[in-house]
Write a structure and sequence with these properties.
By secondary structure, the protein is of the alpha+beta class. The chain has 12 helices and 21 strands. An 8-stranded mixed sheet has the order 3-4-8-5-9-20-10-19, with helices on both faces. Strands 14-16-12-17 form a 4-stranded antiparallel sheet, covered by helices on one side. Strand 1 and strand 2 form a beta hairpin. Helix 3 crosses helix 12. The N terminus is likely disordered.
């Protein structure tokens, strides 16, 4: 028997965490809690959606989440990893469990037409840009706070410590590293025993998927500067044209993917930005490319890195140009879901959601720096949550049009079923690893 103080002395028996969670008795309580809390969550979601902030600029967002968590009774520390938030709640002996949300938005203009659509702008890379939550982090923040409140409503049924973190700058895959470098695992009670997160996507709202093992790719940033010789547009023979080099590289680098790796192995090189010149009748003296390299396997990753460098050097040599400047920097590593923890989580979610839960057969191609938290030696599970209106998905498919996905200016999650399912799923997931209390 362990004695706890809460509005006087109460006595509880602390059961082992291996005992299966009684989903049938707990799930209805969570559903009732999130239904009662939903007006607050809806208002929070729409406020954050309308006021997005870029990575490491999330001061308003961080302050808002910090205030929400303090109001619930968490001990909150702000400015961890520059703009991150750490909220701790001690509820007796047991594991330390990390639950993450992201704070940042994207440098793009929203085109959803929603009445709460973002019109925000910010400075990014030295220029003004529109800002939008087109990745779904606003949904994650609402789910995060809703989960915290639901867990506290059920605190008589579990024992342990919650570490809820609001991570900055996920889109740059730099925020997790910043929080860890700022002492996340040394200042707040040590390394967590478990770590959980989820991400919304273009599936039907409220459907949940999981996968053991690798679920996302690495994401390395690529920057190349081709150096040429400028000239008048009417005198190309006097130039060494870096625009031609850039164009040739974009095409030739795809042969690295199609000819230098196993066709069954995943690998993608994407050039997302090319900047060169200032006028149509001037051949510039330099062209800059920015892109990403994504893989699952380390051997494939190094092979593609080598091929990218050789291709860039070869393109410059063909043009008689100086060697280009090639920078490849490691970004987010692949997220690896702990197989045992993921199987344990899936059992509970299937009991609560039935056929709305399914197993993914292959990893996704996007990247995610949640990997930094689990690669430090923490078993983790990262879930996927559908967020779109099923009727709109069906309509798009009937018209032969692509369903808007994350990072599309038209990506518009359906708030209520998405947030409610996310809160229920994450609350069950956390309670499933906590020792049980019985009065």
């Amino acid at each position: 028997m362990i004695r706890f103080a809460a509005a006087g002395l109460a006595v509880f028996a602390l059961a082992g965490s291996a005992r299966a969670l009684d989903v049938a008795s707990v799930a209805p309580i969570i559903v009732a809690e999130v239904n009662a809390d939903y007006p607050r969550l809806d208002a929070l979601y729409k406020d954050i959606h309308a006021h997005p902030e870029l990575g490491f600029q999330e001061t308003r967002t961080a302050a808002k989440l910090a205030a929400e968590m303090r109001a619930l009774g968490f001990t909150v520390t702000e400015r961890v990893g520059k703009t991150g938030v750490v909220a701790i709640y001690h509820n007796g002996p047991g594991p330390l469990v990390l639950v993450r949300t992201e704070l940042d938005a994207l440098p793009m203009k929203e085109q959803t037409g929603l009445r709460y659509a973002s019109e925000a702008k910010a400075q990014w890379n030295g220029r003004e840009t529109f800002v939008a939550h087109s990745c779904g982090h606003d949904s994650h923040m609402a789910i995060w706070t809703g989960t915290a409140k639901a867990l506290l409503a059920l605190k008589s049924r579990w024992s342990g410590t919650l570490m809820f973190i609001g991570q900055p700058s996920e889109e740059s895959v730099g925020g997790a590293k910043a929080m860890l470098a700022d002492g996340l695992y040394t200042r707040f009670g040590g390394k967590p025993d478990y770590a959980f997160a989820l991400h919304v996507g273009p599936g039907p709202a409220g459907e949940i998927s999981y996968k053991a093992g690798p679920i996302s790719s690495t994401s390395d940033s690529l920057e190349i500067t081709f150096l040429g010789r400028g000239s008048h547009g009417s005198m190309p023979a006097q130039s060494i044209d870096p625009v031609v080099m850039a164009a040739r590289f974009v095409e030739d680098v795809q042969s690295v993917i199609s000819r230098e790796k196993d066709p069954a192995a995943f690998g993608v090189v994407t050039v997302g930005a090319i900047e060169a010149g200032s006028a149509g009748n001037i051949i510039p003296d330099r062209a800059e490319l920015k892109g990403t390299i994504r893989t699952y396997d380390e051997t494939v990753r190094q092979r593609i890195h080598d091929g990218v460098r050789r291709t860039a050097l070869g393109v410059a040599a063909i043009s008689g140009a100086p060697a280009p400047e090639v920078q490849i920097e490691a970004g987010g590593m692949a997220v690896i879901n702990d197989p045992a923890l993921t199987a344990r989580t899936a059992t509970v979610l299937k009991a609560a959601f039935g056929e709305r839960v399914h197993e993914e057969t292959r990893a996704g191609s996007a990247s995610e720096d949640f990997s930094e938290f689990v690669n430090a030696g923490v078993p983790g599970t990262f879930l996927s949550l559908g967020a779109l209106d099923p009727a709109l998905i069906a309509a798009d498919k009937a018209k032969g049009e692509p369903v808007p996905t994350n990072h599309s200016p038209f990506f518009a999650p359906l708030p209520e079923p998405t947030i409610k399912a996310g809160v229920e799923a994450m609350t069950l997931t956390v309670m499933n690893v906590m020792p049980r209390r019985t009065s």
